[in-house]
Write a structure and sequence with these properties.
About 35% of the residues lie in helices and about 20% in strands. The protein is α+β, with helices and mostly antiparallel strands and about 120 residues long. It has a 3-stranded antiparallel sheet, with no helix packed on it. The radius of gyration is 17 Å and the shape is globular.
Length: about 120
Amino acid sequence: MAIERIDPEVKALTLPRLFEDVGEFSLLLEKKVNEHLIHKFLSHHSYFFNNHIRLFDTIPLLSKIKLGSNHEIDFAICDHGSYGPEWKLIEIESPKYSLFNKSGDPSQELNHALRQAHD
């Protein structure tokens, strides 16, 4: 008999807790807090990555992973899918930055984030 493993964050999730967590995250975004606070929240709420983490399996969400001496990834997930292991790297930024400037071009912060992802 196969044992079903469920992510502990998902197992503990209730509808009231979901609404509370979404409200808390929305407030962080509205307040345009710094990246550190967004990272701290997301690192304790792995189910917010539900498009990347299987809800009915345990796939760890790794935080602040060093890549060499010059780069650090905010989050990494290793998904052991049917095609073999696949790493998903996630870089976050503070909500205080706009994605585009007034003329509609990518903002300096967006260009910086894109360079980080590319590097």
